[in-house]
Amino acid sequence: MNRLSAPARFSLNQETVRQWSLPELVSGCAAAGVRAVGLWREPVRRFGVRQTAKLIAGAGLRVSSLCRGGFFTAADPVGRAAALGENRRAVEEAAELGADTLVLVSGGLPTGERDLAGARERIADILGELTPWAAGHGVRLGIEALHPMFAADRCVVSTLGQALDLAERFPAEQVGVVVDAYHLWWDERLPEDLRRAGAGGRIVSVQVADWVTPLPEGVLLGRGQLGDGCIDLRGFRELADGAGYRGPVEVEIFHPGLWAREGSEVLREVIERYRRYVA
Amino acid sequence: MNRLSAPARFSLNQETVRQWSLPELVSGCAAAGVRAVGLWREPVRRFGVRQTAKLIAGAGLRVSSLCRGGFFTAADPVGRAAALGENRRAVEEAAELGADTLVLVSGGLPTGERDLAGARERIADILGELTPWAAGHGVRLGIEALHPMFAADRCVVSTLGQALDLAERFPAEQVGVVVDAYHLWWDERLPEDLRRAGAGGRIVSVQVADWVTPLPEGVLLGRGQLGDGCIDLRGFRELADGAGYRGPVEVEIFHPGLWAREGSEVLREVIERYRRYVA
C-alpha cells in the first residue's frame, strides 16, 4: 500500500473535484487507492449512464451515493407530476450505477408560499408514490436534511430529526437518511438523533465538509476543506460509528478554490486532511 | 390620528434606518406616531447615553430593546473578564435609557475551537455573574437565539429551545428570551417553544424581518423587508400573542437597499408592510 492509498472507508464525492471529467475521476481515484465515489446526475447523464456504470465497474469502484432526487414541494399537480417523473428517472439511473443510495433533497418553499408544515407534508405524500418504484429497482432512498439556511429555497427538511420523522413512515430497507456534518453540526440534538437513526438502521450515507466563514453570496459554495473550519468532524464520524454505521464516509466539498487546482493535488490534500481530522 | 400613525405595538429598530442620526430617528418616529424604538449601543454611545436618554424621554418614546450585550464564549480568563466588564457597562447603559431589555447575543466559537457544548456552558457561567448586576440596575436580560448559520462566528445559541434552557436557570424577572422571526422561522419546534416561553413569562422582546434569498456574502445583511420573503410573519406574531405576549413588535431589518433611501420614506413603507403582513 503506497502512501497515497486512501483509508478503506474514504469516498470522494465527484463535486469535490468537479474540474475532473468522469474518466479523470475514475483514473485519479484508482491511482490514489480510493474505493468509492459519490456521483451527481448531471455529469453522469452528460457522459452517459451506461458508460459511467461500465467505467466505474471496470475500475472496481463502488458508488456510495447518487445526488440527487427530490424537489418534492410543488403544490400544483403539474409540478408534482413532473417531480415524480424526474425522480423515477433518478431511481433508474441509481439502479444502473449500482449506487448504495439515491440522495433526496426535499425542495424549498414554492415561490409565494409561506406554509412550511404544508410543504413538509407534501414530501411524505410524494415519497409514498416513489418508494415502491425505488424498491422495485432495488434502490434505497436517502432523505438528506440541509442546513436551515437552505429552508426557503432548497430543502424544508432542516434537521436530522425531521428527516427521520419522514423516513420512519417507510420500511428501513427502503428509506433512510443521509447525514452530512456540514448541515447538522450546530444541532445539539444531533447525538440523540444519530443514535435513533442508527438503532433503526436508517443511516444510508455519511458526508463531511467543514464550516468556514464568512459564507459566500448564495451560501451554496461555502463548504470548507476538512480541518479549515470549526466542525468536530472526528467527533461526528465517531457518533455515526457509535450508532452502528459502517459504510463509506464521503467527502463532499463545493469550493471554487479547490476547483481551480489540479485534481490529483486536491485529492491528495483531501485524503491527508481526512486522515488528520476524520479517520 | 393621521394615516401615518403607526400601530400601537409597532417598534422601530434603529438599524432599520441606520442612515438616520438619533435626532432624526426621534423626530421621524414622532412624526409617524411610532411609540417605541430599539437602539444599538454604538450609535447611542457616539451621541452620548445621557443625551440619548433625554432625547428619547423628551419625545415620549419608549426603548423596547438595547442591542446588545453578550459575546460570552471566550475560553481564556482575560477574554472572559473583558466580556463581563463590557456587559456590565451595557447594563448601565440599558438602565440609563430605561430599556425594556438588554439583548444578549451569546458569541460564536472562539478561533480554533470546535467544542459547541463547552462554549454553550460558558455562557451559563458568565450569566451567573452578570445577572445580579443587571437585577441591581433593574435591567432584564434577553437571550437571543440566532439562526444556525451564525453558530460558528456569532451565536452558539441556535434555537429558542436552547435560549430557554439557558434563561430558565435564572428567575424569569431577570432573564428572558428575545424571539426574532428571522432567526427562528424554520424551526418546527417553534410553536411549542413559544408556548413554553410564554407560560414561563420569558418573552421579553419580539422582532421581525423577512427571509429573502439569495443570501448576501457574510449573510448578516440579508434580512428582508416585511412581505418580501417567505416567513409567515403574522402567524409568528399570533403565536407569540397566543403565548401571552403583549409587548412591542420590533422591526429590525439590516438591508443596504433600505439604508440607501430617504429614512422617512423607509419608515412609511415599513409601517405599511407591518400593517399588511404582521398586525
From TrEMBL, chains A, B:
Domain Xylose isomerase-like TIM barrel: 29-269
Gene3D superfamilies from the UniProt entry: Divalent-metal-dependent TIM barrel enzymes
Keywords: Isomerase
InterPro entries reported in the protein's UniProt record: IolE/XylAMocC-like (IPR050312), Xyl_isomerase-like_sf (IPR036237), Xyl_isomerase-like_TIM-brl (IPR013022)
Cross-referenced SUPFAM superfamilies: Xylose isomerase-like
One example GO MF annotation: isomerase activity
Taxonomy, superkingdom: Bacteria
Name used for this protein in its record: Xylose isomerase
Organism: Streptomyces cirratus
